[in-house]
Amino acid sequence: MKKLPIGIQDYKKIIEGNYIYVDKTKYIFDLISSEVPIFLSRPRRFGKSLTISTLYYIFKGEKELFKNTYIYDKWEFKEYPIIKFDMSDNTLTTYETFIESLDEVINKIYINEEIPVIKNNIPTKFGNLIESLNKKYNEKVVILIDEYESPILEHINNKKEAEKIRGFLREFYKKVKTKDEYIKFVFITGITKFTKTGVFSALNNLNDISLDNDYSQMLGYTQEELESYFKEYIKETAKKLKVTEKELLQEMKKYYNGFSFDGEHFVYNPFSILKFFQKKKFQNYWFESGSPSFIYEYVKGRKIEYEDLVKYTVNSLDFTTREIEDANANIFFAQAGYLTFKGKEKYGLEEEYILDYPNLEVKNSFSKLILEANYNLENDKIKELNKAIWKLLSRNKIEEIIEEIKRIISAIPYNLHQKRESYYHSLIYTILASAGLNVTAEELTNLGRSDLVLEHNNKIYIFEIKLDKSAKEAINQIKEKKYYEKYMSKNNEKEIYIIGININSDKRNIDDYMIEKI
To answer: Is this structure's pTM higher than 0.85?
Structure first.
């Protein structure tokens, strides 16, 4: 059985070390055959660095590493000079330390290639390096850049510093355009898409494939790839967890699938899948593997609510009109992977994407982060609440769950409360989602819907939340609009409960609720 390549981003090490490699070289072959400079944005731990490494060995001409892959008998495998940067592998504390460390990286390439180091500014050094390598090898140069905007993201909460770094990177990356005659192929990756006036403003020949339908499954594992490449691990894990393979795959889909970059095709997060097969238990692997501290500060500084993230549809232009530190929160989190495209809506010729959390893993972890950063709830208190809700839900104790929700709402400082129904809608959703429950907020993707739906152990709970009205009014709305109808069928053995909740804005909490079984 081949090994799991957890944390291994070097293609050669994966192949020679007998690790599983999910063959993505068909996509790579298509890209390098075009010779057009390529840009691709994807969330962290999604295979960007492995893709860069794969390209590196292709352009190094190491053909035998690609035996049994799509590209093996289709590419010439000729060696080209390569410049490879990982922008996150620099000291990013300040603008000055970043400049200094990048200068060292470039000087090291000069020395390793036995090219005399020129004394000049860094962009000029970079441009000279491209020309010099072309002259030395009499071959065009391949440029591979990973995490292109990492120095900017490190300072996303400091607009002045971010813009300073952006100004420098604009001049630096400009050399990819001005030295085009010496370049064979360019591949640039990052988490965020670039804007027309941003770091690549001079690179008008750069083809951004981030939202392209043809490349939507280039990174991440498809359902077919999961079941094909990890067949033995699926069998082994199902046995360990004492479930059927079909049941295991259904649960895995809920927890780890759901990432989409075109609103049509969906993939699994590779890191979560590899860790899941290693540990053989459901945990929030991707989110907890290093969500950067600036995410917490970003949520805290902007007072993010769930509704802010998913209420409005977005189009592709929304990703390129503002720099990332000025973009709306939903745009930022969609690029970072905490939100994803869940579908498309058409308005004439225009297409817009519906946003939501990709899966249970992200929904659960991100909701905890929002409760802690946005509502000033202590982590220990959130953990206690999560345990209590799970225990009560397993015994169908709905009234007691509502009492738990009341307790947590009362712990939120009074100055953070807002006299808006949507505020409490988002809050109650976030409380339930933080417990790892399968809760959806239908209002936010379907016109006229304002209910929360919770599915658990063959039971469905439909919530309607009102502000300064009555629980009876909330129950009546569910009945009048028949929110429960879509969950009813002849063969449906699920129990359905409807729950009306009223919030008293003076008391800043639930003061009335009703529960009925359909």
So the answer is: yes
